[in-house]
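Ticket #4471: complex job returned nothing on first submit. Input attached below:
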Amino acid sequence: MRDLPRGDELVVLARELSGAAALVERCRAIAAREQCFGEAGFAPARAALRARYGEHEDRALLARLSAEIGRGAFDAAGEARDWALRVLLAITRQKLRESNPEFLAANGLDEGIHS
Amino acid sequence: MPRDSLAQETRLFRFIENETGAATVSNAGMTALPGGAVLRHFLLAFELTGGRFPGPQRWVLRTDGITKLGIGLPRAREFALQRLLFRAGLKVAEPLFMCCDESNFGAPFFLMRFLPGEADGATLVARGPNEPLAASLGQELAKLHALDLARALHFLPAPPADAAAARIAELEQHLAADSDPHPVAAWALHWLKRNKPAPLRPVLAHGDFRTGNYLVEDGALSGVLDWDFAGWSDPYEDIAWFCAKSWRFGAIAREAGGIAPREAFYRGYADVAGMRIDPARVHYWEVMAALRWLIIALKQRDRNLKQGERSLDLALTGRRPAECELEILLLTAGAF
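Support reply: We reran it on our side without changes. The output follows.
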């Protein structure tokens, strides 16, 4: 579900490159938050996707969701559309909790997560 | 300095000597400039004796990055475009010489006069609101869109009959080439197809008109930078890109590039263009902007992950698509 590179890969790169302090700190913070959440952060979205598409890996689940969106399966107002939006928002929020909680806060979605 | 760099610098100043017809180049120095996620820039300071540019000089060299993004104009076309824009009276650095011979610097490059000013987006936004600057940026953008250069710009891809449809097709192609599924991007593409407005007459667009791509000196606009994404498009693509949340550098409430309310920017544009800005059309192109930046972020990430360019900045850009995804959902959730 996560975007790449993973937090641990960012930390390795930061060690190798010894870049600007702010960037290095950002890499460390992302890795720490990823470790803190583990896989639990994406569990509700994954469960919702598996309930609709069956027991598949994340990649296959996301591919099926993308295909359904492209086919217009969620165009009409109603339960299916609300479900899709809930899942998309849940995945996006979790990615931002880990990679940029400040952006969530700036958008009025502050969850009290700190670096 | 490593021997390779020294030899490169020697070849570069010899090129300048030849092109300018100077008898000598002295007190020459070259410094890498910060910024520019795609291309590289160097400040050249030197003194010429004789020739077309006698006396002390400060020029900027613009050349390809170590790895390529795979989109945007090649340097020679960008140079030709920038020359036309300079002659048309736009606030751009004066382009001086183009060099396509890669043996000089390892890649094609062009030279232009140095323009003073601050370009760093975060620094400019941190200075606080600046409505006159936003208005002058609106005016400058409207001047660009009003230019009638179709015949001179024969080297650009032909103007699309429907700029939104063309951009959607381009983004869809890039997305299909990515190895991972991106459902929010798929949501955005579908929304953009279903809500596409009637096309307007295409204009010459900057393609990356935003805070971070212009210079400010004493609070005023001194130049517009980075023309490598220029091409024919809907005028609202530039307007919306400037206002997109991604380019407000944290000052989300100042919706015109993090420097002012939208109205100041819109007013400046409307004063020159003589047209009222249509908020619904800006909204549409802001969804397009969020999707386009998402895809550019993926491509920037790939320069690190797949092309081997070791850069923390590029790697961290790989974690930014989620910002675009949130913006897409906020902009489209109520009106799918």
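Chain A has a mean pLDDT of 93. Closing as resolved unless it happens again.
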